[in-house]
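If I may wish for something, please sit down with the protein I am sending here and say whether tokens and residues agree:
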Amino acid sequence: MFQYITRATHPETGELHTCRYGWDEVPGFRPGYFFQVDDNEDPDKTIVNEGMFVGLTGAEFERLVKKWKVKLKKIEKTVT
């Protein structure tokens, strides 16, 4: 698994949120991308949580990146 942390712009409000994305392979599930956007009010909650077990395809991931105006820039990388 690798994870990057950057910023996302809410498509309806224009607010900035923390975005986590990357690639993961969970045994027994389809490998692929994951995409999460944290709630500003409660950092333990997520607004978007896609691809956590069944990975997103490249097209699905790209659709979310465009919708949330995420610049795929590495800010922090975590390897587990």
Notes: Confidence is low (pLDDT under 50) at residues 75-80. The radius of gyration is 12 Å.
